[in-house]
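sorry for the late reply, my laptop died twice this morning and i had to redo everyting from scratch. anyway the thing you sent over, i finally got around to it. pasting the sequence first so we're on the same page, its 262 residues, then the predicted structure underneath. double check i copied it right bc i was rushing
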Amino acid sequence: MDLGISGKRALVLASSRGLGLGIATALANEGANVLLVGRSGDKLAENCKTINAAGKGKADWVWGDLADENFVEAMVEAVSQKLGGIDILVNNTGGPTPGGTQDMSADKLDSFFQSMVLRVISLTNALLPQMKEQGWGRILTVASSGVLEPIPNLALSNTLRGALVGWSKTLATEVAGSGVTANMLLPGRILTDRIEELDGANAKRLGKSMEEVREASVKTIPAGRLGTVAEFGAAGAFLCSEPASYITGTMLRVDGGAAKSL
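ok and here's the structure:
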């Protein structure tokens, strides 16, 4: 299938590794020009080298920290200078620290709200007029399966990513008539560094080994395995494609069938 995004310009947040990098790579494999964002210049430069060596879409990078109050302004400038405009925005953020609801102090809640919710909404608002004016745009927001079934010991993530669900659905309704779609991509257990970190935290909390925690989690997945970054990235690329132009306001689960909700 031709995804129809060759030459499209994409900004992919938190793409130095993991899920963000997976989506950026998939978009570039379809011929899109991608701008990677993250806090590790070495990793970003290496990622761009790998993508560009494939000879399909082009990749460039810019340093950016979602916790920085000047993040939105910096990204708008980078889009203008390095991409010359925007067609696709992939909102992706790092995950907050594990813990229960009683670990959510006001300071911690406010800090992660700024980086995981406020910056995402503000950046989207800043770039959206370009998409509406050209009559084509894709806004993809990566969240978590925890917005459907809250994940134990991830109270902050469940709370803040849940806030983005209502926002994305409302946004999709508002911009549907202008050729812009807004969807959410919900990862289940995808093998990334983040999963390694969470399994380590759970092992410590439960007094078990990493192997025991991993085995127990895999048993809850009907597919019988963890997902791959490439599989996740492919799903993201499709939602950003031309054939997906009639798909908006949705949440797509990439979880091997793990979610028990309808």
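Helices lie at 18-29, 41-53, 71-83, 106-134, 155-175, 193-206, 210-219, 229-239.
thats about all i looked at so far, will dig more tmrw
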